[in-house]
Every structure is written in C-alpha cells, then in structure tokens.
C-alpha cells in the first residue's frame, strides 16, 4: 500500500510499505516524493488511467482498475489497484490511500481458461461437423450386400480421417491439394495415376468434402473406370483462374458415362458435395474411350463447415 498527499504538487507518495517495495523492486528513497505514474510504461492502458482520474475528480469513495505496471528492473506486472480518498475532520481531502495486488498470475489463469473455452468450442464444432458428414455418408450409401456396404462406408470414413490428419498438421488453416490427392491414390495404382498443377492451399472447409470426392472418383475408376483396365490411366490437372480452382479429372480407357454403371458415389452426392458444400460446379463428359470430370471451386468460399444438406437437390 501507499499513501499520497494531494495537497502537495503532483500528489506524491508520502508512505510506502515494505510489500509495495518488494512488489516493485524499488527502495523507499526511490519512491517517496514521486507520483505513482512512474510505475506506468509503454503498454499501460491510458484509458484505464483516465478512468481512475475521473473517478477521483468526481469525489468517489472508491475507484479501482487493473493496470499494466513496470518494476524497477523493467519487468511488467498486472497491478490490481484500488484507491480511496481520506478526508479530514472538516471534510477536506488530505490523503489518498492506494492498495496494490499483483494480479499477473490470476490474469494469466483467466486467459488460459478463456483460451481453453474457445478451444473446446472449436473441438465441439469440428466434431459435430464430422459427425454430420458421416451421418450423410451412411444415409446415402447403398450396396447390394452388407459386406459391400461396410467396405464402402469404411473407405469413406477413412478418407475423412486422412483429411482430418492433414488439417491437424496445418493447424486447421487448410490443406495442400497435391498432398490431398496423393492420400487418395491406392498404392496398387500409383504408377497409373498422375497429378500436376501449381501449389494450392485449400481452405479448411473444402478439405474434407474434396477428400471424399477424390476418394469416390478414385474408387469408381478402380471398379468401373480406367483403372479397372490394365491399360487405363487417370490424369488429374489443376490450375487457378482468378479466385477459382479448376480441377480436371481425365480417365483414359474408361468405359464412359453412357455405358458405365452409375458411380458408387452417385451423381447426386457428387453434386451435393461440390455445389452445396463447397459452392462449386461440376461438368461431366464421357464416351467409350474415356471419362472427363471438370470441377470448379471458389478459393474464398464460406467457412461455416456446415453439413451436407443430404448431399442431393
């Protein structure tokens, strides 16, 4: 605690106890006779200081604030400051009594708690979004046998998990397109699938839906398309045009759209993911010699990570 004398010029400290000296690192002769503002520094909030001054000028019985102050050695501390006027017998102001408490650790704990709350909210949001996508996958997946259904669901959920790991590795700021594609190429077909294009960092909300799209197109190519034939190949190219990502998927040796069985992923799901989840567009062309899918995605789309709206329109 300190006591200051407002009757003297600049309201100097006239008494400072040992706890104040220990807190600030000063000796008594370095403190007495000085205004308390010497504890302020470059990052002290002047708004809080002005709030204290206005409260004292208004004659309030008690004013308080939390200020960033500085010790003699230059280190900072958060000072929980409370000031009360001391009135004489005739009602005149004779002293100010001020108490200080080191609130540095308390403030640090509060900041950690606030950060933890934000982290838990973010984890909750991502978990809900992932579950919503899984729910949509389960509802829209179809197969002739339970075993086929189980295998397709497992493959799709594993694609989501790979995308999740990719996002975690970047701190959830996004994912590299080339890495995402490489994750979805089955090892048995690595020599027959090629990808080329500039380095593209996908927005985080785009990574998991696009991972599913690539996984399903790759699975369809392996079962029904180019990769189901010994001489077939898949060529994936991409580029940026303005703020759009243009993805060109070409299968050479594919059966083609007109005669091939419907892709396992289904056109409705593909359109739902690209158009509704990622605000993009899809164009498909095919013949007996090959299949071509063009996907256009905005690189500035919304980031609300909303569920798939059933994957169909």
UniProtKB/TrEMBL annotation:
Q: Where is the PAS domain?
A: 1-59
Annotated ranges, domain PAC: 61-115
On whether Acyltransferase is a keyword of this UniProt record, the answer is no
Q: Is Flavoprotein there in the keyword field?
A: yes
Query: What Enzyme Commission number does this protein have?
Result: 2.7.13.3
The record's Pfam families line, in alphabetical order, gives: HWE_HK, PAS_9
Protein name in the entry: histidine kinase
Q: Which organism is it from?
A: Teichococcus vastitatis
């Amino acid at each position: 605690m300190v006591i200051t004398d407002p009757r003297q010029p600049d309201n100097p400290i006239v008494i400072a106890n040992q706890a104040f000296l220990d807190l600030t690192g000063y000796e008594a002769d370095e403190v007495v006779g000085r205004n308390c503002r010497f504890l302020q520094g470059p990052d002290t909030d002047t708004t809080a200081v002005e709030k204290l001054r206005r409260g004292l000028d208004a004659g309030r019985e008690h004013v308080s604030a939390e200020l960033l102050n500085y010790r003699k050695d230059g280190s900072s501390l958060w000072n929980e400051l409370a000031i009360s006027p001391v009135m004489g017998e005739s009602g005149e102001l004779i002293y100010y009594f001020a108490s200080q408490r080191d609130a540095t650790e308390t403030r640090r704990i509060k900041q950690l708690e606030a950060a933890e709350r934000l982290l838990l909210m973010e984890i909750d949001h991502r978990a809900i979004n992932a579950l919503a996508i899984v729910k949509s996958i389960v509802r829209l997946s179809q197969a002739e046998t339970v075993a086929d259904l189980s295998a397709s669901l497992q493959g799709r959920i594993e694609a989501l998990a790979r995308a999740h790991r990719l996002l975690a590795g970047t701190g959830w700021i996004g994912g590299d397109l080339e890495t995402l594609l490489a994750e979805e190429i089955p090892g048995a077909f690595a020599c027959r699938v090629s990808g080329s294009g500039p380095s593209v960092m996908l927005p985080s909300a785009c990574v998991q839906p696009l991972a599913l799209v690539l996984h399903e197109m790759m699975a369809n190519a392996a079962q029904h398309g180019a990769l189901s034939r010994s001489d077939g190949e898949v060529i994936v190219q991409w580029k940026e045009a303005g703020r759009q990502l243009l993805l060109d998927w070409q299968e050479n040796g594919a059966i083609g759209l007109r005669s091939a069985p419907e892709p396992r992923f289904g056109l409705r799901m593909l359109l739902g993911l690209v158009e509704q989840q990622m605000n993009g567009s899809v164009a498909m062309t095919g013949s007996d010699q090959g299949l071509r899918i063009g996907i256009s995605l905005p690189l500035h789309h919304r980031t609300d990570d909303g569920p798939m709206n059933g994957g169909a329109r």
